[in-house]
Amino acid sequence: MAVGRLENKVAVITGGASGIGKACALRFAEEGAEIVISDIGATRLEEAAQEIRNTTNGRVTWVEADVCFAEQIEDLMQQAIDEFGHIDVVVAAAGVSGANYISGGDNESLDHMMIEQPLEHWNRVLQINLTGVMLTNKYAARHMIAKGNPGSIVNIASSAARVALPGAVDYCVSKAGVAMLTNAFAMEMLEHNIRVNAIGPGFIETPMTQGMQADPEGAQMMIGMTPMGRLGTPLEMANCALYLACDESSYTTGSTLYPNGAIGAALAQSASKPEYLRAFAVFGGLAGMAPDLDVFINSSTDPLLFLEYHRHFTHALIFIPIGALIVAGVLFKLWRHPLTFRQAYIAAFLGYATHALLDSCTTYGTQLLWPFSDMRVAWNNVSVVDPLFTLPLLICVVVSLRKRRPQIATVGMVWALAYLSFGVWQHERARDVAYEMALAKGHVPGRLEVKPGFANLILWKSVYEFEGRYYVDAVRVTTKRQWCEGSFIDKLNVGYHYPELAPTSQQARDIERFRWFSNDYLAPYEPHGFIIDIRYAAVPNDINPLWGITINEGADDKQHAQFVPNRRVGPEQTQALLQLLRGVGCSDVAEQI
Q1: Strands 587-588 and 481-490
Q2: Catalytic positions
Q3: Which of 126, 182, 414, 478 yields a CA-CA distance of 20 to 30 A from 194?
Q4: Domain end call among 237, 257, 277
């Protein structure tokens, strides 16, 4: 019998009596987890627990607890420990919407414009949605740390964290807080090997949206804002949470997963007629997301396999017509729509074509020219994560759908192209500064790269090679040109740094695979046996890496190197990044030359 992805794991799920929480409990139990669900209402909890037992034959218990009260959440975690001995996974799914108060069974309406909203209603929404998540994370992490076992925390945020919903200011604010809490708490938990992520669902068929579904205008609004033309299901969200809970996402933390079809949807919409707008958005949006299905290519025996296949053939230019054909063919058969197959294929083609080109604008590297070349194309003119690029584009997509005006989607595309063009200009400015400063130090770089810092086009990381060393600095380009001095590190020399490693061993081959992935920007790092990709760090002028591989010279020749994210990134690095963005510690280039 196949082993479930959560076999021998214990999962605690708040809000587990209904909706996404209940779906997570059921799905996790199917994958072998032992379950503790929590909610308000003993009858609801027992019914949910019995349904899960009947469906999966799994071990399920329940604890009645209100996430608003610290002592009840602390007791919930302790009861889970008493029952099962440890906690491995936590899903913070208890929540309340601006339209229906669902913690418990009263369904009290809390829908108010903010200027009319009673303060106690505002406080209640923030208490449940944000403070409740904080308390759940806090007490779960305490037990994980005390037991010394790695863990995964999954918070339920919302797409309302990024797209405002009129009449639900409290809900939007609370969910935006959950997204930031997830990111910040993940940084604190790195040293304890506890991953913290979130999912940001759109409109889902849950008790939270029942009131809006029953109202014709509310239902029309939800469908109109959803490019796929339907509400999501709790099971679909549970599958997303399962990915974050299990080891398949072992190198992912501090992330909130949202639908990622905005760029594809925008281009497809801009080419469509108003009456076909939604269908074009669905075909284009899903095709725009499809290349990233390669994240599911991994191996339990080869830790570096995912590095080779992420942004591999699915992102190649030659694969665009094939990928678009697959998406169009599947959707054309499964979904009712007004398009001919030719129209569906055009929409899918436009959406799919944007993905690889956009990824190539980032720093990660994309195999655009596969199978003719394995070169990783990285134009380095936009960060992998940049809200200034994504949010205006996403807003244009949503407004275009609601107003049925393709021209608004075109505005989004114009913004995207303008922002990417600005990134090209900033890249050249940053590169000029980096080269000038290298020469000012008496260095003639063998090669030099600059890449944008996290979520901005102002602060750039500079890396250049000179006489067997890598020099890492930051460049700040606004109306001024500024230099933020960093440090240096020796370049990796396998024969020198790992003399006992057999050249024909699997680990030696894995070093070469990692060298290809990192464009040969490799350096030895502490502790001995840790090889890092010098291009990536939380702070642009710092060497402290985001990831690397570990080598064991005493292992047998068949053992693989291990890919590990760096666990030494914390609040200090976040503060250092913010200071550099403000220009603290940087000096004008004219003063240095």
Answers
A1: antiparallel
A2: 171
A3: 126
A4: 257
